[in-house]
Amino acid sequence: MVKIEISDKLYKALEKNAKESGFKNVNEYLEFILKELVTDEEEISQEDEEKMKERLKQLGYL
To answer: Quick one: pLDDT band at residue 17, thresholds 50, 70, 90?
Structure first.
């Protein structure tokens, strides 16, 4: 496990956001945020892919 240092002000904001978002604690919230940032952003959800296909059909490309 690695520890990082952040300002008290930032921690309080993260604590508030974590609580409002239903996370158990700041660590769980930060882990979620960081995983989201480092995942492959090029992956497209099935729902988004279907929306794009429908839009392309409407425009006459498919």
So the answer is: very high
CB 32 within 8 A of CB 43: no
The residues spanned by each domain of the chain are 8-58
Euclidean distance between the first and the last CA atom of the chain, given in angstroms as a whole number: 50
Task: Give the CA angle between residues 5, 19, 47 to the nearest 5°.
Answer: 100
For the entire predicted model, the pTM comes to 0.59
Cβ-contact 14, 26 below 8 angstroms: yes
Of the candidates 35, 32, 33, 27, the one whose C-alpha atom is nearest the C-alpha of residue 11 is 27
